[in-house]
Amino acid sequence: MIAPSVLSADFLNLGRDVEMINESEAALFHVDVMDGRFVPNISFGLPVIKAIKKLAKKALDVHLMIVEPEKYFEDFKNAGADILSVHVEASVHLHRSLQSIKALGMKAGVAINPHTPVSALSEVIMDTDLVCMMSVNPGFGGQSFIPNTLNKIRELKKMITEKGASTLIEIDGGVTLENAATIIEAGADVLVAGNTVFSAADPKKMISDLHRLSK
Ligand code: DX5
Ligand code: ZN
After folding, report:
1. Which end of the chain is less congested by CB atoms within 10 angstroms, N or C?
2. Is the ipTM reported for this complex over the cut 0.90?
3. Looking at the domain covering 2-213, what would its CATH class be?
4. What are the sequence ranges of the domains in the chain?
């Protein structure tokens, strides 16, 4: 599955870019929320997500890069999030957070930074619908894929299989047409792509090309 990252869209033509994703082979909209505290960048928030939701024909996969995410679960639900991911590094009570997200009717995701070991997920994997594994340090689009992520994907896949979980593995950051096949081979189910899609001459075709590799 391909999840284009709205972070790299043209905000002056956001409606056009949302329509492009609607008509493409993308499975999800990946929506990055940054607060300038958990990560050294500020992106956009609830009003922009509400606007995207009005036009989007696919599920919104909202990646929260904010401190104290639990304060805003209901707000993100009301803005239109279908999947809501919180960072393990930003969650003091991760288990409770996952239950709260699900109780609001969303799928619950856990995001992990490059330095966080996969073992940090072992006690919550059964409660997690999606792991958003960062393959760059979060905060910016257009960075390079960290190669050690491939080992982490294999390890996570093994954990999911051994525990009999149905968690999806999403890889976020530095995905290109060149490395996508290797990432999928390691066990990824969802590829986020920002820069690769939106800097392409034909973004919709780029989504199809990535989608073809993911089948
Ligand atoms: C990074 C974000 C990513 C970003 C990916 O902090 O979480 O979702 O948009 O962008 P690319 O695909 O350009 O690395
Ligand atoms: Zn993201």
Report:
1. C
2. yes
3. alpha beta
4. 2-213
